[in-house]
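Appendix B: complex inputs.
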Amino acid sequence: MKLLALISLAITAYAQTINYAKIEILTEQYTPNLYMLAGAPGDADPNHPDGAGGRVGLLSGPDGILMVDSQYEQVTAKVLSAIRKISLQPIRYLANTHLHTDHTGGNGNIVKQGALLIAREELRNDMARAVNMDPARLPQITYGMGDPIKFRMNGEVVDLIPIRAAHTGGDTIVRFENADVIMIGDFYRNYGYPYIDTNNGGSLKGALEALDYLVKISGPNTKLIPGHGTIIKREDIVPYRNMILDVQSKVQDLIQQGKTQEEVLAAKPTAAYDAKIPGALGVAPGVGTSADRFVRMLYTELKK
Ligand SMILES: [Zn+2]
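Resulting structure:
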């Protein structure tokens, strides 16, 4: 209970540093009816200088809108105004890639527009136990690990594919089959080092498996769209995975030498990559840099 209280305090303190009024929503179009909305880069959201909040996906057309993720609660009006520039159709479905506030904060507001909210059962459970959770933010329809949930609408086949414990315990990737686009959530990131939310069921093993799975289901031209950062292709996954394995083995060696967590951090096992990864040494609230957060996570996971 004490720990929960501390976590909620930390989340609140961090949330206060975001200047929601300053967040600007930009629209990217991929096909005639598939769009992404992303926060503009800048200092409005200190944890995401590459683009405020999490990316939103929109499939529009005569069958209504399918939406993926809902940004921060405080920017819903801006998100809706961007959506209404694309389509005046009702928002019928809202899916979530994972539970974090930058992807689900606006859930309740979008449900109020008439959308059905669908996500993993694990996401719902983890979300429901957060302090002061607004029940309107919780999924109405849930699913577990198993076959993808398929939507056939607007000439597209959309698959909600459950991913075993990766960035969180309730991750989903969203594939648009005809557009050859996959929204991959946050188990991959190219601004700063990988972030695995082990407090909400995430695991490094699952993240590595998810990366392998992405390579398997993607073609050479498939657009892979992370929750943050730049769009990638299948060929970008392998070096990313190798970087994780390399840093992991360095941390493992240091642990075997009997080093403490602070000594492992001081040894800078990410040094070979820091200059190549944008945001590598950017601030991760409460834990130092993005590199520190990654190394601490590896240390904790490997110590288990
Ligand atoms: Zn995110």
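The pocket of zinc ion is lined by residues 54, 100, 102-103, 186, 227-228 (CB under 6 Å).
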